[in-house]
Amino acid sequence: RAKAKAAKEAKKKAEAAERHRQDSIRIASFTVEQMDSLRRDSVQRDSIAKAKPKPVRRRKNGKPIANGEFIGWTDITTSRSESIVENLLGESIQLHQDNVLGDVLKSRPMIVHYRHWYNYAVEGLIALLFVLGVWAGRHSRFMWLVMSYFALDMVLHIGLGFGINEVYIMSAHWIYALPIAVAFLLKNVVRRRYQLALKGVLALLAVWLWAWNVTLIVGYLY
User: Fold this and answer.
1) What is the residue-wise DSSP string for 104-131?
2) What distance in Å separates the CA atoms of residue 27 and residue 41, rounded to the nearest whole number?
3) How far apart are CA 163 and CA 23, in angstroms?
4) Residue ranges per structural domain of the chain
5) In 3-state terms, what secondary structure has residue 64?
6) Strand locations in 46-115 (E)
7) Per-residue pLDDT reduced to its tens digit, 21-67
8) Is residue 161 within 8 Å of residue 75, measured between CB atoms?
9) What are the CA-CA distances from residue 139 to residues 1, 134, 154, 184, 198 (Å)?
10) How far apart are alpha carbons 217 and 94 in whole angstroms?
């Protein structure tokens, strides 16, 4: 009886050892299969990445004066007149209905035109007030100081064409000259009725620009 019991236990141990060996073989083969699958997936991803390279963001710009680290950002071929009308005095103050807040490095063209004539009328009024204000403050040293900064930016952006492709995003460099010039215009208007008329025009202009730009920005966000 003791021999039979010992033989039975030995048989159980042998069967358990065999099951353990078979499980180890299955686990090892499964692990190898997994590694092969991961390796194939990695190779496939690499081949897809090589076949479809990431798009390169290229700056839209005209021909530079020369090639160089800084001089290469200049532009001597882009139309100055269109850039002044549509970008410098346009987009910087009064947004366009098309390509609202667009990026020139993606899909926005360098020059975007207004749809309506009255947008150009508003822009012309702003330019006229600026010129009259500069003339009104021509005897002020402060006005000449402001205009020296303004002139420097115009030489860079309009003269050399630095950043002319999206000059409106750099309007903070020079746009302060406009309200300062208009302030000199108000200061030098002696007759009260003319001063009241000018204030009325400025108030209407401010309301128009606020309503126009906010409407387009809200429409873009929603």
Assistant:
1) TTTT--S----SSHHHHHHHHHHHHHHH
2) 21
3) 69
4) 1-54, 71-221
5) coil
6) none
7) 776 666 556 555 566 666 777 767 666 666 555 554 455 667 777 77
8) yes
9) 128, 10, 22, 10, 21
10) 11
